Amino acid sequence: MASYSASGTVSVRPYVTVDNVSARPSDSNWTARQILVVATCFILNMLDGMDVLILSYIAPALSSDWQVSPESLGVVFSAGLAGMAAGGLLIAPLADRFGRRKLILASLIMMAVAMFASGIATSIPELIASRFVVGIGIGTVLASMAALTAEYAPEKHRTFAVGFLQAGYPVGATITGFVVASHVTTHGWQAMLLGAAFLCAAAIPLVWLLLPESIAFLLSRQPKGALQKANKLLASIGQPQLDTLPPLAQREARNAGVRGLLSEGRAPSTILLWLAITFSFMTLYFVISWIPKLAVEAGLPAKDAIYAGAIYNVGAFIGTSSIGLVAMRFDLRRLILVYMALAAAALTIFGSVAMPLAATLGTAFLIGVFVQGGFNGCYPLAASLYPPEARGTGIGWAMGVGRIGAVIGPMLGGFLLAAKVSLPVIFGIFAVPVVLAGLCASLIRLPKAA
């Protein structure tokens, strides 16, 4: 039975051990295959950032074109987030049974089709339905990519790799923000959605060619040709090859599926992780859904407001990348708490202090650094908490349960704006959940290094 410590270091157990040979990445050296896996997942996460955030960037044009109220727009935002919850809870755990690569490919196809449908939608109900399906694909891909990156990264750099993967999300969102700001007036918001659909479709052959299957999946589930495929992948990451597959009876069934999230003393930490992500999502998706419109409310012209959303995502990239690097030397859980406390301060300043354009954009940048950086620390935290046979399920359920907050945040923001609540009060309300998220993360207990 695993032992736990309140200050335990981040540790991930070997995937499968056969005759003292561990099917896991080397401890420190990166191979070309490992770099390729992380880079491919980074690109996929850029697409996820584009697919989620594009709606907030086109929101002003959509509202003007269709005369959409803030309440209805909040429902459209939340439809995609509800789909992400469904994907994380119901579909992502299937990666532990059928393979991460297959699930990522299926999800990409789903996203491309649904994004195209959203681009040709003619009513709010059609847009809500298509955004829900897009969300299912995104929620599935996010969990599967994080689990796959955790498995292939060298153990010493696993926290950094999973954190860096998440930095693709704000990069995609930032590029999307600048593209939309420059072209939405000329080409219309529907063209922006159709362009996003094309990019999703273009990524399908990239994943087919470059993204390998999980070694842990091959050795534990043992599909046809598993030994040959596993040995080829082991060689590509500098690991010894195996003579035979491990007996199926050696699989740690007690750690598989949802049961693995609550076994071996993980139940309290699992609940804390779910709470941390729920609180984080509540503020995170309020900010990323509404920051362009809130910037308009704060006095910025519409084009500058879109740039504020893009600048936020530049900060999100810096925050996500930095927390992974710093966590190589300091306790990740304490770092999340620090980031979230600073996020609350930046939110309060943005909502309550009248500032010139440069200062407003600078504060939006800091909100991105600390809100997104602190939240994305939860991905490597989840990857470290769960064993490989439950990692896809663990990350999927954590993000899926957390989407409760993601659904509440934008809807609450829409209702508060419709009720003409002042900006200082709105931002004060959403500063509270990030502090609670940091506190929950700091209390999580991780397995001791084996």
From TrEMBL:
Ranges of residues in domain Major facilitator superfamily (MFS) profile: 37-449
Chief location bin: membrane
Ranges annotated as spanning the membrane: 35-60, 72-91, 103-122, 128-148, 160-181, 187-211, 271-291, 306-328, 335-355, 361-382, 394-419, 425-444
Compartment(s) where it occurs, according to its Swiss-Prot or TrEMBL record: Membrane
Pfam families: MFS_1 (PF07690)
GO CC terms of this entry: plasma membrane
Key words, A-Z: Membrane, Transmembrane, Transmembrane helix
Membrane topology: Multi-pass membrane protein
InterPro entries: MFS, MFS_dom, MFS_trans_sf, Sugar_transporter_CS
PROSITE patterns, sorted: MFS, SUGAR_TRANSPORT_1, SUGAR_TRANSPORT_2
Annotated SUPFAM superfamilies: MFS general substrate transporter
CDD domains tied to this protein: MFS_PcaK_like
UniProt superkingdom: Bacteria
Gene3D superfamilies in UniProt: MFS general substrate transporter like domains
GO molecular function, one term: carboxylic acid transmembrane transporter activity
Protein's UniProt name: MFS transporter
Organism in which the protein naturally occurs: Sphingobium limneticum
Lineage: Bacteria, Pseudomonadati, Pseudomonadota, Alphaproteobacteria, Sphingomonadales
